Amino acid sequence: MGKFLVDIYYVWKNELKLVFRDPAAILLFFLVPLLYPLLYAFIYNNEVVHDAKMIVVDDSRSSLSREFIRKVDASPDVEIVARLDNMEEAIDAKNRGEAFGILYIPCDFSKKINTVQQTQVNVYADMVSMLYYKSFLLSATEVSLDMGADIRVNVVGHGTRSQDNSSMQAVAYESVPFYNPQNGFASFLIPAVLILILQQTLVLGIGTLVGTHNDHKTFSMASQAYFGKNVNAARLTLGKAFCYSSLYIVISIWVLKFVPYIFSLPQIGSMLTIMAFIVPFLLAATFFAMTIAYFVSQREFVMPLFVFTSVIFLFLSGISWPWTAMPDALKAIAYIFPSTPGIHAFVKVNTMGADLAGIRFEFIILWVQTIFYFTTSVLMYHWWIRNYDPKFKGAVKA
Amino acid sequence: MTTETGMLAIMRREFNRIFSSKICIWGMVVAPVLSMFILIYMMNAGLPTKIPIAVVDLDNSSTSRALIRQLDAFSKTDIKFKSVSFREARERMERAEVYGIYYIPKDFSKDAISGVQPKVSFYTNNAFLISGSLLFQDLKTVSVLASAAVGLQMAEAKGISERQIMPVLQPIVVEAHPISNPWLNYSIYLNNTLLPGILQLVVILFTISSLGSEVKSGLGRKLVEMGGGSSWKILLGKMLPYTFIFTLIALLFMSVLYGYNKFPMNNGFLPMFLAYLLLIVSSQALGVILLGVFPNYRFALSAASLMGVLSFSISGVSFPVLSMNPMLQSLSIIFPLRHFFLIYVDQALNGIAFGYSAYKYVALLCFVFVSFFFYGRIKNFLYENEYED
Predict the structure, then answer these.
(1) Measured between CB atoms, does A75 come within 8 Å of chain B?
(2) Residues B380 and B261 in one domain
(3) Is residue B174 included in any domain, yes or no?
(4) Strand B100-104's sheet: what is its strand order?
(5) Fewer Cβ in 10 A, N or C end of chain B?
(6) A36 chain-B contacts, CB cut-off 8 A
(7) Domains of chain A with bracketed CATH
(8) pTM value?
């Protein structure tokens, strides 16, 4: 047992030296996790779309239509940038990118209201962004309900204040957005991105280190084995994994604690609960990275091999495309990767304030992955040592 | 073997290098095609449906039950738990078993009829913004309808004729016209940019690889000799085989997106094909530029990876560029995917005249022109033939 721990310690220490001597490892393990989350949070930091540009074509030219336009313009999400005479001009302006939506008020707008007929306004939205469409539609609908309520009171006649209230709206309703009260884009996407950055930089960094060993065809160089000590594949795997994960414990404090803090993203989870699942997550991600590093046969190959998976892993985690709407086959595939339970657990704890019982399933999955990928990475090292380090070959069996 | 020189010889040699390399087959062919299958399959439904919610009905009257039935009939909402306590609903929301709660208070129908204006509440889980907003639309609509249903009874009591009821309940209707994507289909919306984004990423990475690997294996100088010292012959000979292969991938994407899935391509094949072609050559140019700026194989690849992944965000497909910080708005122009995205919106989605997008095509060409300035540096990089890790 004593020797077991000493071996692991030596591998750990040696690997640590190796990491700090390699500029590629420093870039991927430290600089990218340090700066990339800031860049991402900066991109989405405005959270919501304000003042989406809209053009008005008002064929009604009445006080009621002007009231409608004024109220739409006053809503925080929409800004009226131009009033044009006809739809042709408006469409041309939209095509030139001067606005993303058109509000068209037909000529009988006011006349219909005054004669108690249902009237209509048209909102045309460029689908360059769903968020613009949402802003236009929600703002116009709010104004229509608001003005509609006043019109209704005029039609059914005024009564007491409470009677008026209930003719304006027989049933009141309130919407309570949970966990992300301002419907922010950063608050929703960044937590997932942060977890993914941890996993993907581990994959890229470890892949680079393994690829470098392969270039030199001395795979056990980082282990004591090279100097004649007896370190088998399991101890080599554990020692290296502890080196990477211990570094990442520190890095994840920055990524998961300080970055959300700097950008005031929702952060209501307990630190202890986050720590509780981040340990198996980092172990699972480390062993996962060490396993797939098998395929990195040269120092530079990790990027062409794996960078594209970032997009796939993010979508498989069910954040952008709702998890409930994902085909079952893809859900099953998604659970192969540590990022999926990692992201679910982080969103539940950090954003939604769940306790450990609330992430029991993710917690178990992460430990299962840890054990599974530990086994595969031992096999990977075993294979490499046998094939590329003949000097060491005999010692493995001992 | 060493006797062959000229651009054609370099091209032939490059095809051999590509097809004898497992990593090229994986990264250039398998990765984009696999991504395409996963993403297209994932979003096959177009618009997410059946998002689970819980209903807390403390009124439990025929009116409230009718309201719940109406809600259940909406396509986006799936009532998973009926008649639970608010506490239970809240717990299920915390465990992400449901993404919304619809709460009907006690005495809801009694109060509504007697004009007390009861209040229904709905809670959405916006940690999952897409699910949350989709549910919000359904839950809000059903609440407005509830108001209308009660209003209808009240209006009838006031003697307003049937013909007049709708104008009274809803005097102004907003009619929405989401131009060119009336289905609000997320697959159209996302895959038309995600797939080209993956293509762009792969193109940049393999452009750098193709040049860097020469130096790494000590063949840089030989390559320069094959090209007779002409940087044009060397670079065109190296690049064109990739242009060809990636164009085939682009055609596969186009046939799946616009052929099989019948996504809108309102101006026909040519403008979009041109956009894909320019996306490929501008990404190759960006690869050359990156290797010219950072003449270190590994570091140039790292820079390319960071840019390639960032493209997905900064192209504006998820969050509009104009709502980002002005600094990021200017930064977005150095990403080919940004220009491609704008062309796609104009030419495929909106089908507006080619003239409106012309300068966006030119923007992509600019990458190619700028890359010419780096040809000399790349030749030196190859000639010096010094690999540094």
Answers:
(1) no
(2) yes
(3) no
(4) A172-178, B119-125, B100-104, B51-57, B77-81
(5) N
(6) 306
(7) 2-45+184-397 (no CATH), 52-168 (3.40.1710.10)
(8) 0.91
